[in-house]
Amino acid sequence: MNQTDQTPTSAVPPINRQSSGRWKLFAIIGVCAFPLVASYFTYYVIKPQARTNYGDFIDFVTHPIPADLNTTTLDGKPLGLKQLEGKWIMLTVDGGACAEACSKKLYDIRQLRVAQGRERDRIERVWLITDKVPLETLLIREFDGTVMLRSQADAVAKWLPAETGATAADHIYLIDPLGRLMMRFPKDSDPNLIKKDLGKLLKASSIG
Q1: Domain count, the chain
Q2: CATH no. for residue 141?
Q3: What b/e sequence results for 115-142 when a residue is b if at least 16 CB atoms lie within 10 Å of its CB, and e otherwise?
């Protein structure tokens, strides 16, 4: 009787299967990370020699979000900035009395979000309140939609870099969807110029 040798129908040997699985995993990670990497490369590297951005870039490696901000909602519930990851965050800092300059920043970030049109849902507005002064009801209503968080003043001051002669309360900051502080806008910023920077970042990145 003739016997016919048959090749086993089992799949690829275990070693090959493991290797294939690893490559698939790397491919998935690469696809997920590519949009953000590409946006940073485009904005940081591929640009004219003349400065085209209005805001100042911040080295997020040396300015990570500190654990001791101890941020809470107005009713005292813990809510960290890390919990807002996944969106671009326009951040402003001030005391609860919120004088004219503070109110203007809140107005500006509200209007800047609206000005992005269909992209506006990718942006979150956050106000870090660095004291325990009660907020006026009218102020809360006027800027409804802004995430208002009380925080530790000392921790905020150490975290957020300010221009020479200025404080964190003089600036508007931008945090990327991965929770990394990346940009600071000048004191008494021109909202039209902030709008251009924000628009370019949203266009360059599909994340957030």
Answers
A1: 1
A2: 3.40.30.10
A3: ebeeeeebbbbbbbbbeeeebeeebeee
pLDDT band at 56 (very low <50, low <70, confident <90, very high): very high
pLDDT digits (tens, 9 = 90+) for 88-144: 999 999 999 999 999 999 999 999 999 999 999 999 999 999 999 999 999 999 999
Question: What range defines the domain where residue 136 resides?
Answer: 56-204
Cα–Cα distance, 161 to 8 (Å, whole number): 65
What's the start-to-end Cα distance of the chain, in Å?
A: 69
The two three-digit tokens of residue 180, written as one number:
């990394």
| Separation of alpha carbons 198 and 120, rounded Å | 11
Alpha-helical runs (H) found in the chain: 14-44, 100-115, 137-142, 153-159, 191-204
Which residue, chain included where needed, has tokens 């609206």?
Answer: 114
Identify whether 10 is part of a domain.
no
Q: Is the pLDDT of residue 205 over 90?
A: no
Quick check: is 33 in a domain? no
